[in-house]
Specification:
The complex is a heterodimer of chains A (about 270) and B (about 100). By secondary structure, chain A is of the alpha+beta class. Chain A is about 30% helix and about 25% strand. In chain B, strand 1, helix 1 and strand 2 form a beta-alpha-beta unit. The chains are: A alpha+beta (about 270), B alpha+beta (about 100).
């Protein structure tokens, strides 16, 4: 008899067909090298009926594997540094959008943060599954607000009147309607500002500039049977250390107060 | 530079990216410094058009709200302002310290 719980820990999941298993692989921020993809493809062709499945959170799975093929497959993948994923009540793989490295809207280095979160927290035990995502800006492509812990890049705009041409574009392009004008001056309604940086990007005179960038942390997002969007607990977090410290405390709190099979957000609503 | 409106263009109802394509075509046979008055829908275009215009070296002179639309005056610039992805306007100022 196979220890199904032990297998789930490393992302090996018994299928509906009890003699077959799905192998869930470890991916960080949706990135894999060409060599890694080639090897995954070879393993799928050899052991998995030739099919590769892309999961909804940037993961990769090979289904329909026989139990005796799991170990050779695992070894073949480990040789190109592709390791097993996670299932069950523990921290899952970290999702990330391209971010500042390549995306014109990206405000933060999402992949670097995802790698660090992965290094610190991947597969750590939690009351129920715990999912994290890192997204570069308000467009929220990596759906930070749908994850138990979500990091979003933000930038605080500041107005420098010297070059301003009074075109009013900032007022009308702001999605949060957070910019207003008084005479010849423009000002930001900080509470309404969503830190998206659109005003900075579109200002023709570069009068709106970046005062500082920071990280926004959302917690308690979840999909599933009772969807809930994450609650913003702090924005413009200035350093990665502070960000990681906060996330660490969130996870510690969950481990202490969460009930089995209770998602973080539902725990928040209960307490 | 002259601020006269040389041409007008109504791109209400035109979907992205055709809205900016039409603007580019209208600007093509205008001289640097001349202005194009564009009527456009509220929504994505209000952000995408100025951003693309800025990248191509053109300047938004004025934006005025209308009923469910906006009037935007664009002044033709001379040369594109730099490659996509290198946007020094967005970099945090040196002495303000970015995120570590």
């Amino acid at each position: 008899m196979h220890d199904l719980t032990a297998l789930k820990k490393v992302g090996i999941i018994q299928q509906r067909q009890k003699n077959l298993f799905a192998m869930r692989l470890h991916v960080v921020g949706g990135d894999l090298t060409g060599d890694q993809l080639s090897r995954i493809s070879e393993v799928a062709l050899r052991y998995g009926g030739g099919m590769v499945h892309l999961s909804t959170r940037q993961g990769i799975e090979i289904h329909n594997m026989r139990h005796e093929d799991i170990e050779p497959a695992r070894e073949a993948l480990a040789a190109v540094k592709v390791y097993m994923g996670a299932c069950g009540p523990r921290i899952r793989i970290i999702v990330a959008c391209p971010g500042e490295a390549t995306c014109r809207w990206g405000l933060i280095e999402t992949k670097e943060i995802a790698r660090e979160l992965d290094r610190r927290y991947f597969r750590k035990e939690t009351p129920h599954k715990f999912k994290m995502a890192v997204t570069g800006c308000q467009n929220n492509c990596a759906k930070a607000t749908e994850n138990d812990a979500g990091v979003m890049g933000g930038v605080l705009p500041v107005w420098d009147g010297k070059a301003c041409t009074k075109c009013d574009l900032c007022i009308h392009s702001c999605p949060a309607h957070a910019i207003a004008r008084e005479g010849d001056s423009y000002y930001l309604k900080r509470d309404a500002c969503s830190l998206c940086g659109i005003c900075i990007a579109v200002c023709p005179a570069s009068s709106w500039g970046a005062a500082r960038k920071g990280y926004t942390l959302f917690i308690g997002g979840t999909m599933g049977k009772k969807p809930r969007l994450g609650t913003r607990i702090k924005d413009l977090i200035g350093t990665r250390e502070e960000l990681y410290g906060l996330i660490g405390r969130v996870i510690d709190y969950y481990r202490e107060h969460g009930k089995p099979r209770e998602r973080f957000g539902h725990m928040m609503d209960r307490r | 530079m002259s601020r006269e409106i040389r041409k007008t263009l109504d791109i209400r109802g035109v979907t992205c990216p055709m809205n900016y394509v039409k603007i580019m075509l209208a600007l093509e046979d205008m001289h640097c410094g001349e202005c194009l008055e564009v009527t456009l829908d509220d929504g994505k275009a209000l952000v995408d058009v100025p951003r693309s215009a800025k990248e191509d070296g053109h300047t938004v002179v004025r934006v005025t709200p209308m009923d469910a639309a906006f009037r935007m005056i664009l002044q033709k610039g001379d040369a594109p302002r730099g490659a996509a992805g290198v946007d020094t306007d967005r970099a945090p100022k040196q002495d303000e310290g970015g995120i570590s």
